[in-house]
Amino acid sequence: MYIDLLIKIKNAEAARKKALKVRFTKMDAAVVKLLEEKGFLKKSEIKGRMPKRILEIEPNPDRPIQGIKLLSKPSRRLYVGYKDIKRVKGGFGFLFLSTPKGILTDREARKEKVGGQMLFEIW
Hints:
It is a single chain. The chain is α+β, with helices and mostly antiparallel strands. It has two domains: 2-59, Ribosomal Protein S8, Chain: A, domain 1; 68-122, Dna Ligase, domain 1 (2-Layer Sandwich). 26% of the residues lie in helices and 32% in strands. The chain is built from three helices and eight strands. It has helices at residues 2-14, 26-37, 106-112, and strands at residues 20-23, 41-47, 54-59, 68-70, 79-80, 94-99, 102-105, 116-122. The strands form two sheets. Strands 4, 5, 6, 7 and 8 form a five-stranded antiparallel β-sheet that branches. Strands 1-3-2 form a three-stranded antiparallel β-sheet, covered by helices on one side.
């Protein structure tokens, strides 16, 4: 799940690892793709074939993750409409949402006028 993925990435950055491998899921791949677009990761690759597929991730030492706030959990899911999406850290952070159009950041969701489940904030 994406929660485990985020913690592994943050720990790898703290330990100054060059790369890490995590189990592949479609949701994790979507989150990693967005993190790569936003500059938190240097590169990512999907390796292997089903059922032993893995994501190989290379953290970006130039832009480390300062903080993560997990919002939705399996026991408590939080939803928001596009009009109620707030800025994270005055616009310096990102809110990741699971929407009918896929995993989007807060800015993309406002532009697409779509709400959804709030996953986490990252800055």
